[in-house]
Amino acid sequence: MSLADQPKSSLRERKKAKTRATIQQNALRLFHEQGYADTTVEQIADESEISPSTFFRYFPTKESVVLDDDYDPVIIEEFKRQPKDYSPIQALRGALKAAFSNFTVVERAAVRKRMELIMSVPELRAASLNQVSNTVNMIALMIAERVGRDSSDIEVLTFAGAVIGAITSVLYYYAQNPDIKIEKAIDDTLLQLEAGFPL
């Protein structure tokens, strides 16, 4: 299911998710038409028929409207659903396949536009690197729970860092090659990681 279709969400949560998606879609369109630097929060808010203060309730900064998404909880839930006998990387591959298989056409287009912006705007690229530690910690927590180890274990953290590095490389490649099937590219890369990255 797409993020907007999750059945456990209340009506209020679904409205918030819809507003958030609308803000992000309008922002990405304006960034494409006018350029990131020349687009203001006020313009995004106006296009979204909200006030600037409402914008900041959904996104703390202009950068975050590009960098933030709601996919982490979906991936975490899919990861927990994977068979217990799967290795961590098999479980992660299964979780990502399940999450990607439910992306709508609009969600896929938004991911591509966001990656294109992150690649082309220096301040967004720098800000995305600042988010890496949060994502590594998220992956480390998922893996640690599955294997019964501490998330601060150096081997767990190294594994999480390798996974994020591999996925980030694919996302950057996707920004420049939008015709690839991103879910297959990520799965192939994780499979290569599982095999020890033979070249």
Automatic annotation (TrEMBL):
The chain crosses the membrane at residues 156-175. SUPFAM superfamilies: Homeodomain-like. Keywords: DNA-binding, Membrane, Transcription, Transcription regulation, Transmembrane, Transmembrane helix. PROSITE patterns: HTH_TETR_2 (PS50977). Signal peptide: none annotated. One of its GO terms (molecular function) is transcription cis-regulatory region binding. Residues 40-59 bind DNA. Residues 17-77 form the HTH tetR-type domain. This is TetR family transcriptional regulator. It comes from the Bacteria.
